[in-house]
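User: Hi! I'm working on a homework problem where we have to compare a predicted structure to a textbook description. Could you give me the structure for the chain below?
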Amino acid sequence: MYQRARILSAAVRGVDGELVFVEVQLDNGIPGTSILGLPDSAVRESRDRVKAAIHSSGFDFPRFKVLVNLAPAHTRKEGTWFDLPIALAILAASGSLPKVDFSNTVFVGELALDGTLRPIRGAIAAARAARKYQIKNLFVAPQSAKLCALVDGLQVYASADLAGVARALVGAESSRPIIFDPKTDNIQMSSEDTPRIEDVTGQFVAKRALVIAAAGGHNVLFTGPPGAGKSMLAQRLSPLLPAPTIEEAIEITQVHDLIKPGDLLILKRPFRAPHHSTSRAGLAGGGPELRPGEISLAHRGVLFLDELPEFSRDALEAMRQPLEDGKITIARATGAVTFPADFLLIAAMNPCHCGWRGHPVRPCSCTPRDLSRYQSRASGPLLDRIDLCISVPPIQPSELGNKSSNMKLNDEVTTESAAGAALAARERQYQRWRALVTSGSSPPRENARIPARMLARFCPLDSKCKKLVERAMEQFGLTMRSYGRTLRLSRTIADLDGADAISTEHVAEALGYRISNDSPAAAHAR
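Assistant: Happy to help. Predicted structure tokens:
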């Protein structure tokens, strides 16, 4: 006579979770354990971990033929998620856990040989999957419980080992749901090491570009000789961005949890700066296990690509669609997964291969062919998605140590003043979005994320502004994408000025950032 048990678990696909039914059947035959349902090597190895954990927890492993089925069978099962549900299903089928109702609880967790419950990657995805399918309870390792408790409408329980889970299920040990308060349970990082914009000498145009980028979510490209301060400027963009909301923090943490499980909610916007030797899979995501790449790890934050032309062409071109859609879909023979990739791109590059083109003292040794080859490494379609192309000139010796030089144009920029201006401009954008968009399902967006179909409503131009944009399109060969991005950028500049309407001054400044004579984007346009 067959003895069966079925327990709910979850698997991760991209950043989303889906329910998995762990079915166990005990039958007469040669003792052994077989696992079905497209398991990978980590899942197949769970039979030995589960057996050792059951013995270490004081239970007897059944001397039957054990058949484990992970349904749906067409979905590939990866990782160590299923150790705990397999062990509980075996105990339930053998009668060690009598009369336990498993129908409304999801179990995920890795088991050590001594029965200890270890955290797994993607626990938040399991919690969201449970809520999606209206499952009320979730059992996870203690290290993952706090973050999972952030998911509304779900009761999260944790236990240190398999024996503790079994005692809680049979009522031999009381267990209370985990509650997570970000204010008390999170360790706030010190702000003493936060890069400050006032540390940068001069470079007022570049600082202005950083404020605009932070205010509207616009992409930036700095071009200048070595040592001009391009990397230093890029590192000072993140402090100008507003702190993420709780919903955004959960999104950020969920992506990073797929790489390394943690017990803290990420309350700071990520700043990712991959090396230029990073592969396409490392930047865009993929690999044998379909992990998120750097553009997804920068979700809701900043991605900094230093030495932009030194990245492989294949890796850079993979960013083109995510820069438009805020997500990336990776298709393989086994299926397709989608990772979030709504990031702010800031890139830096030299003006030429040797780096000294346009320097007032050091001569450039590049031939016209060298210059063309170097600048063409970043394609026109990619540069067309960058709103602010800024030339960063070398600092003159007379500016060093001279504070008065930092007060030109009545523009003494500090991190607090720049962040405050960007936050005020964003609040204007959010209020406009709430006023013009009647649907409550769409969250407020930055100006850089205004859909093309709504540009006429959000960025209306008078006749003078239209003529100015049309002349620029004719003279510089700007694309329709450039036209839309110019309107969005003009809207942000107007918001920084506190203006309700876009003026010719705002449009002219926006066009100046896109068609700078020293920018690679202008070279492509010409």
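For your comparison, note the following. The longest helix spans residues 415-436. The mean pLDDT is 87. Good luck with the assignment!
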